[in-house]
Amino acid sequence: MFQVEANREKNYLLIILEGFIKGEEMEQVIANVHQKTRTLTKGFTIINDISGLKVLKPEDTEKVKSAQQWLYQQGAQKTIRVVGKSAFSRAQFQKTQQQGGALYTTIEVADMESAYPHL
């Protein structure tokens, strides 16, 4: 399951990923991210909730890495990553961000309620 929303007023992109996301569904996530990001202005923030995400397959982590690179190129300034107790997903996203050169600031929080004050 996934959800992608853009808030133009506050200039942020919300991405929620839950369960096992793979293959075609991951491509749908990325297509939605591209579409919604185009409505934001440079300097936008990403709130990325991966607290319910299960382990990604290697081919899907490559897609995440490409999406992170693209978001950085589009002007993402920071990401607020909701990690909860999802240690493995947290590590996967940290690694793909670093490998992809997505140099935006990352703030990690435990839950969505803790994310919004960082906007």
> How many strands, what sense, and barrel or not for the largest sheet?
5 strands, mixed
Could you tell me the CATH topology label. Transcription Regulator spoIIAA
Summarize model confidence as the mean pLDDT. 93
Q: Specify Rg, calculated over alpha carbons.
A: 13 Å
Q: Given the C-alpha coordinates, what overall shape results?
A: globular
The CATH architecture can be named as 2-Layer Sandwich
CATH superfamily: STAS domain
Structural class: alpha/beta
Count of the separate structural domains = 1
CATH top level is Alpha Beta
- Helix share bin: 40-55%
Query: What gap, in angstroms, lies between the N and C termini?
Result: 24 Å
What's the total number of strands? Answer: 5
Enumerate the strands of the largest sheet in spatial order, edge to edge or round the barrel: 1-2-3-4-5
Could you explain how this protein is built, in words?
This protein has 119 residues and is of the alpha/beta class. It has a single domain (2-118), classed as Transcription Regulator spoIIAA. 40% of the residues lie in helices and 28% in strands. The chain is built from 4 helices and 5 strands. It has helices at 24-37, 58-73, 87-100, 112-115; strands at 2-7, 12-19, 45-53, 78-82, 105-109. Strands 1-2-3-4-5 form a 5-stranded mixed sheet. Strand 3 (45-53), helix 2 (58-73) and strand 4 form a beta-alpha-beta unit. Helix 1 packs parallel to helix 2 and helix 2 (58-73) packs across helix 3. The protein starts with a strand and ends with a helix.
